[in-house]
Amino acid sequence: MAHSCTRFIHRRGPSTRTQAVSKRGKRPAIQRRPQARVPGTIPVSRLHPVLASQPGPCPAPGHFPVGPAHERPMGSSQEEGLPCQPSQPDHDAGGHCGPDLEGAGRASATPGPPGLLTSHPPADSDDTNASGPPAALLEGLLLGGGKPSPPSPRPGPFFYVGGNNGAAIISSYCKSKGWQRIQDSRRGDYMLKWCEVKSRDSYGSFREGEQLLYQLPNNKLLTTKIGLLSTLRGRAWAMSKASKASGGTQARLGKDAAAPTLEDLPWTSPGHLRPQRVLRMEEFFPETYRLDLKHEREAFFTLFDETQIWICKPTASNQGKGIFLLRNREEVAALQAKTRSVEDDPIHQKTPFRGPQARVVQRYIQNPLLLDGRKFDVRSYLLIACTTPYMIFFSHGYARLTLSLYDPHSSDLSGHLTNQFMQKKSPLYMLLKEDTVWSMEHLNRYINNTFWKARGLPKDWVFTTLTKRMQQIMAHCFLAAKAKLECKLGYFDLIGCDFLIDDNFKVWLLEMNSNPALHTNCKVLKEVIPGVVIETLDLALETFQKSLRGQKMLPLLSQHRFVLLHNGEADVWPRLGGSCSLRRRLPPPTRQAKSSGPPTLRAPDQPGARRSAPPPLAPQRPQLPGPSPDPDSAHEGEPQALGKEQSGTGDRHPDQEPSPGTATEERKKPENARP
Ligand SMILES: Nc1ncnc2c1ncn2[C@@H]1O[C@H](COP(=O)(O)OP(=O)(O)OP(=O)(O)O)[C@@H](O)[C@H]1O
Ligand SMILES: [Mg+2]
Ligand SMILES: [Mg+2]
């Protein structure tokens, strides 16, 4: 039963303790009456009470012992354990890493207890390392007042934050719940781990259903340039196949039979209502070619002419590093020569992520919409709050403008690349930085004032048409990756999505970023970022707890700024590529559940809609006939070794599982040098 007071979940290892979880909303007592033990299971209360508890009362915070003697300062070389690698950190606002906490004006949506964190938090290094104001300030903002509670009778729960990106906000959030920060990334007794960099160790030791871990291990399916391109192509290919196979219906592929998605809604594009059922990739993603695939780069070199500018980007870099424009035959010839010179180089075959071929070339949007003559792009957020079931959200972010006026013929990249990192290079940045980041309200006002009448736009175009379009595009991308993302209860992710608007008000997705910048070095960022981070954590926690307890997800107490894009309660899950271990650990279906028909028929908003897939696991993804003619399908998600390209795997089905590898290839830093 979904609302059973006592629930058990199976545990991988032998259970030595059994404890019953207390009634909903109550924190389990330290000494409680043991419940009847179900062999091979462990009660939810075996988890730390905070994770097992309802969204609601936080544990009573108090004074916690200072961390263990082996604590290391943040940012040490051992961070995230070994080996480790950056997972495309997106420090767009890079440089300043001390969030100004006055922006954190929103209270945690997860109701807290009357007890407050002590105004004398335990001395740990994160607050000083993060170079922000004392964490207690944000904690006070989060919790809003109250009396300190007596010291916690047991240590923890523990949390770990790796790196500085948003660390003070995350740390303050966790401490406001009474959690205790640890500095040793190798410790396995954490309740929440938020890492800027992904490490194989983190995923290997992750205890599903017991811990929260930031970043999906294979988010590269969306967050590298090649990964996103391949994922979108896979979906396009599957859609066209399904359409042909079923005489036009798209129901079989990529779409859940149970519930309409955002993609089913009609959209305004560009500026006018034009009903369309499903997006086509070319409508929102600029034409792109992979340089890691020989036939694609040759195709690009052949098609290039000087009537169109192209932009060349490393697959897994950020901050505009390694980006250059291709405007004339000489530049393209230089790129061609560079890729040819390494084509047969065994070193580059082994390390494709370092080579000049680990890139894409993309049609450059030459006619961007300008704000006071300056180019801009929009950063929005895709939140994967939960993967079992999927709970996917959208949130607004902000607009990023260049300092200089846009000139398509200028060779100065700072007028072409809207990244804050690029703008910071200008001596004018310190003077004008506040004008390089606009709030969405500011953008909306500007577009209302400047274009609304002149261009016949709907009023508040930003909050109507643009918002819906971004949501639709994000939903499309998520659905494209949905069946391939690694799902475990406790994984969550926040992905930064960059959109460009052209002067026809057409919305283009430029890329998606793992580990989006959470710095707050501008006024607008102070207003936006803490709210995004706090609600991310709130939603991750609430959906985790509800999933663990088999409760219906909606309504979500934590949901405020985020908009639900996809509620996976109606999906069949655990799913392919997902958590087999969780499936084993779930209790067998109740009689009621068994008799209620196929899971897909269960309304998602009914209690108990969360369900394990019936044995045998119903296929989540359609079985597609035949090999893919799509040449990109050879290397789903990420460029593999060049040797693979040549080894005849090019007919791999695009809907096949990509290589589960995460750490090895991502450990390799992309090359940032211009050819
Ligand atoms: N196809 C394009 N057309 C026009 N401008 C583009 C295009 N692609 C990228 N840009 C510009 O270049 C900037 C950097 O590109 P992109 O975001 O893809 O790279 P990045 O290095 O991953 O940057 P970051 O992760 O810091 O946002 C964009 O913010 C945008 O201003
Ligand atoms: Mg990026
Ligand atoms: Mg970007």
Automatic annotation (TrEMBL):
<feature type="compositionally biased region" description="Low complexity">
    <location>
        <begin position="130"/>
        <end position="141"/>
    </location>
</feature>
<feature type="region of interest" description="Disordered">
    <location>
        <begin position="579"/>
        <end position="675"/>
    </location>
</feature>
<dbReference type="GO" id="GO:0070737">
    <property type="term" value="F:protein-glycine ligase activity, elongating"/>
</dbReference>
<keyword id="KW-0547">Nucleotide-binding</keyword>
<dbReference type="GO" id="GO:0005524">
    <property type="term" value="F:ATP binding"/>
</dbReference>
<keyword id="KW-0067">ATP-binding</keyword>
<feature type="region of interest" description="Disordered">
    <location>
        <begin position="1"/>
        <end position="157"/>
    </location>
</feature>
<dbReference type="GO" id="GO:0005737">
    <property type="term" value="C:cytoplasm"/>
</dbReference>
<feature type="compositionally biased region" description="Pro residues">
    <location>
        <begin position="613"/>
        <end position="630"/>
    </location>
</feature>
<protein>
    <recommendedName>
        <fullName>Tubulin--tyrosine ligase-like protein 10</fullName>
    </recommendedName>
</protein>
<dbReference type="InterPro" id="IPR004344">
    <property type="entry name" value="TTL/TTLL_fam"/>
</dbReference>
<dbReference type="InterPro" id="IPR027752">
    <property type="entry name" value="TTLL10"/>
</dbReference>
<feature type="compositionally biased region" description="Basic and acidic residues">
    <location>
        <begin position="664"/>
        <end position="675"/>
    </location>
</feature>
<dbReference type="Pfam" id="PF03133">
    <property type="entry name" value="TTL"/>
</dbReference>
